[in-house]
Design brief:
Elements: H1 9-17, E1 30-32, H2 34-40, E2 43-47, H3 58-67, H4 71-76, E3 78-81, H5 85-97, E4 101-105, H6 111-119, E5 123-126, H7 131-145, E6 148-149, H8 156-172, E7 179-183, H9 188-200, E8 205-211, H10 216-223, H11 246-255, E9 258-262, H12 264-278, H13 284-300, E10 306-310, H14 321-331, E11 335-343, H15 348-356, E12 361-367, E13 373-381, H16 387-397, E14 401-404, H17 409-413, E15 429-437, H18 442-449, E16 455-462, E17 468-476, H19 482-492, E18 496-498, H20 503-508
Parallel strand pairs: 2-10, 3-4, 3-6, 4-5, 7-8, 7-10, 8-9
Antiparallel strand pairs: 1-2, 11-13, 11-14, 12-13, 12-16, 15-17, 15-18, 16-17
Helix pairs in contact: 1-8, 1-9, 3-5, 3-8, 5-6, 8-9, 9-11, 12-13, 12-14
Catalytic activity: L-threonine = 2-oxobutanoate + NH4(+)
Organism: Rubrivivax albus
Cofactor: pyridoxal 5'-phosphate
Length: 510
């Protein structure tokens, strides 16, 4: 093999064609995504590396590197640093080849990946906040114990193993392909994919994809030298790399056609897109390619093209799905958030709801806090992003001061969960939990039936995607109106539980 500086796509082509990966890897399918394809007007294909035995492409490069080690090296054992997927590949390869494996992982690694590595026999060491921190500790352990380091990306044998993904894509789809979208962490996958594609079908574009807060490779290529990030975002932990490899930077700079940066909301929407087409759940890194296809096609006004996204991993912690589901609506541009100020007077809440009209209300948070003004946090379903500004202008025209919070990170992440608190203005307040059918008009029916002298002092609702919505309501009901109130609740025929005596309510809201 030629020295690193002279290595070409043709050199890598030979290494990829002779790579040893199928002792442990499968030839993953190349599946169509018909729902997404129809929606964006382009033919989208998913290279399903999330279906590998360790739910990631990483076992290809890890095994190809380790199978080429000498018997003496394997006898001493191997060590690696990884955010999770490479770790599983090394652990599986070590078990197959009969050697020991020490795996250094950041403390931020999802528990799912840590447990998977342990189940494969890997000796897990947790160190640091990112891959780069784990890598530094792994270098120390390597020197102390005489182990062989298996790099997750910056190694020709690893790059060649990952390049077999592209070899399969071109064999599985011999028709036109306009671009292949590849997630980038350290750059091993994109280097292998670009090396093979540019040697065999150079007309196909290779587009690298990074998150906006972990874009070391894109910044490095733009600067003409490797750039180390001070911090990286951890949502897409599989691509959270502060400094890309020397060899992967060289190959990427030479062969990759361009880059797309995507944000967290777009990635969450892409996870949902893949689920709708496949009923599979990707990890954030695995969905980067899909998010980029949507963004790229929209920005360039493309229709009728054929795009491939490498869905490179599915090691997702189940608890993360709550966050993904919440933020997917923003990524799909289907939800807008507003802070609206309305007069604190009877009937104003109903007037405001009438102004919303038939639009679906996705969230409503309100707590009485001022004698003259009420501040409402509301989410409204939309079809495209520019509707948010139109809705805000409509509220303003009707006398409701409005802030559009759709792009406000603090509002999306924190504020929506913090609206409320104690108040001295909630005299005679009683607290109720209602279960509403999730259909248009249910809220207006509630408001229209309610006695006009009963004031709403607290309201909390969030659409959870179920057939029924759960709503918490505070009502100021005078004691003399108790019989009328019982009749009101009975007329609604909504399940209702009174929570006025709940100690949590009295601790935090009363």
């Amino acid at each position: 093999m030629k020295p690193t500086a002279a290595r070409t796509a043709a050199d890598y082509l030979k290494k990829i064609l002779t790579a040893r990966v199928y002792d442990v890897a499968i030839e993953s399918p190349l599946d169509a995504a018909p729902v997404l394809s129809r929606r964006i007007g382009n033919h989208v294909l998913l290279k399903r590396e999330d279906l590998q035995p360790v739910f990631s492409f990483k076992l290809r490069g890890a095994y190809n590197k380790m199978v080429h080690l000498s018997p003496e090296q394997r006898a001493r054992g191997v060590i690696c640093a990884s955010a999770g997927n490479h770790a599983q590949g090394v652990a599986l390869a070590a078990r197959r080849l009969g050697c020991t494996a020490v795996v250094v992982m950041p403390v931020t690694t999802p528990k799912l990946k840590i447990d998977a590595v342990k189940a494969l026999g890997g000796d897990v060491v947790l160190q640091g906040e990112s891959y780069s921190d784990a890598y530094a500790h792994a270098m120390t352990l390597q020197a102390e114990r005489g182990l062989t380091f298996v790099h997750p990306f910056d190694d020709p044998d690893v790059i060649a193993g990952q390049g077999t993904v592209a070899m399969e894509v071109l064999r599985q789809h011999q028709g036109p392909i306009d671009a292949v979208f590849v997630a980038i962490g350290g750059g091993g996958l994109v280097s292998g994919v670009a090396a093979y594609i540019k040697a065999v079908r150079p007309e196909i574009q290779v587009i690298g994809v990074q998150t906006t807060d972990s874009d070391a490779m894109a910044k490095s290529v733009e600067a003409g030298k490797r750039v180390q990030l001070d911090d990286v975002g951890l949502f897409s932990d599989g691509t959270a790399v502060k400094l890309v490899g020397q060899e992967t930077f060289r190959v990427t700079r030479q062969l990759v056609d361009g880059f797309v940066r995507v944000d967290t909301d777009a990635v969450c929407a892409a996870i949902k897109d893949v689920f709708q087409d496949t009923r599979s759940i990707l990890e954030p890194a695995g969905a980067l390619g899909v998010a980029a296809i949507k963004q790229y096609a929209q920005q360039h006004g493309l229709k009728g093209r054929t795009f491939v996204a490498i869905t490179c991993g599915a090691n997702m912690n189940f608890d993360r799905l709550r966050f993904v589901a919440e933020r997917a609506e923003f990524g799909e541009q289907r939800e807008a958030l507003f802070a609206v100020t309305i007069p604190e007077e009877r009937g104003s809440f109903r007037r405001f709801c009438e102004l919303i009209g038939p639009r679906p209300v996705t969230e409503f948070n309100y707590r009485i806090s001022d004698a003259s003004l009420a501040h409402v946090f509301v989410g409204i379903g939309i079809h495209k992003r520019d509707e948010a500004a139109k809705i805000a202008r409509s509220f303003e025209r009707h006398g409701f001061a409005t802030l559009d919070l759709t792009d406000d990170e603090m509002a999306k992440e924190h504020l929506r969960h913090m609206v409320g608190g104690r108040t001295a203005l909630a005299a005679d307040e009683r607290l109720f939990r209602f279960v509403f059918p999730e259909r248009p008009g249910a809220l207006m029916r509630f408001l229209a039936t309610m006695h006009p002298t009963w004031n709403i002092s607290l309201f909390h609702y969030r659409n959870q995607g179920a057939d029924y919505g759960r709503i918490l309501v505070g009502l100021q009901v005078p004691t003399a109106d108790e019989p009328a109130f019982r009749d009101f609740v009975a007329s609604l025929a909504y399940p209702c539980v009174e929570e006025t005596l709940n100690p949590v309510y009295r601790l935090f809201l009363r």
